[in-house]
Amino acid sequence: MEPVNHHSHAPDVSFDGGDLDCGNGLLLLIRKHIDPLPRGGLLEIQSREISVDEDLPAWCRLTGNELVSWTRRDGQRSFLVCKGKLSERDAPVAALASAAPAAMPSGGPSPRARREAVSAPPVPPLAVTGMGSWPRPRWMIDAMHAHVEGRLSEAAFHETADDAVRLAIAAQEKAGVHMVTDGEQRRDSYASFVASRLDNCQLIPLTDLLPLVDDPEAFAAELRALDIPAGQVRHPAVFGRLSRSRPLVAHEVDFARSVSGKPVKVALPGPYLLTRTMWMECISDRAYDSREALAADIVRVLREELAELLDAGAALVQFDEPVLSEVVFSGPKNKRSFMCGALSESLAPQQELAFARDLLNAVLEGMPQERTALHVCRGNWTPDESVALSGDYAPLLPTLAQVRVGAYLLEMCTPRAGDVAMLKALPGHARIGIGVVNQKDQAIESEDAVAARIERGIALFGRERLLLHPDCGFATFADNPICSARIAQQKLQVIAQAARRFD
Question: What are phi and psi of 402, to 5 degrees?
């Protein structure tokens, strides 16, 4: 598109990007200003950076927004971008005060009063539970997108999510579980949602990251391989020192406990996963000198959250660290799994594993071991087993055994995971959760097959130590559930029925 002398439409919102290029912060500013606009809203981007002439049109094509026109005069550029298509613009949008992003807190969070602790019911032997996520109803997904884009208030979003949580918990209870989760109904994914709860962090679509990677073509090919459009998957971006002025997930536990008398389990992304996900050149290094400095703040935030979750009565707090599998299994024969969006640089596997171990132990230090758990799988973004990482847990066991956690919840039903007997290498004090159904397989396992897996687990670890669950969650990404709610309920039900044989 050639520049014009002047725009034929007036913008609804305008900002000056100065000398920033698309790979050095400009896309973050664009995303902050365009997300709150309605479809058809017009954003003016002023810039003095010459590379934006080519990069911004490419970004518009990738994200489905329309570059309406642009001007260039004396080195100053002005780009008029429509959110969506210009044909969607019914009428000029009034100047939207809400479209101008509120200033993010620059300091730490205000001191939070320690809540009065409530007791958590015990988790019984052979407890049946889901891993975390549950398929969201279509109306919940629509509300989630509207909330992220600023079209739905916080109160209206949580009112909608409350209804979705009620349905998810009711389905789990009907299936016969002993410990419920809220189904992660308020989250866009198992990990990136944290960016919507932390100060100085925001969610950006994966497509926005193209200018930030070393090989944009290879990255674009990976995005096309996803089972879900990359523009619908959002990634955390850090643009200031992280702080926690509100709970990450403690409010989820509060509501879940209000609708169920069963023990409540809640999952959190682990500190290594968050560090690998959030540390990106040209973004996070504007706030942190190193990923170790970023990791220190992530550890602090997770410790604050863990303490509140325990006070809130969570029976089990599970830290998800799936990227550990990528550390040891990715390579020439195993293509990188895009399960976690871990795009940052990494060191040799042993260094990465030691880093992950130390971060987890820093979060867990001084916390009651019996109420904490660690989950590691090999990717849960597609039902196609052939593209997920394979390899047994042997390379990970020495590291896992050094993590001061009370339970390990591991993928064991898929043949990719190896034989369950190798988990005997884990500490004898810890409870062992084994996956006994495969959430990727649409077929419902037979009760006899599940009972045989349970019997083997009891023989290896004893009835008191064993926990039972699917290999992973049923809907890692909100827009891309692995299976339907009906199948999820049936799979949990067959675990519960098989477990009753051992009462």
Answer: -90, -5
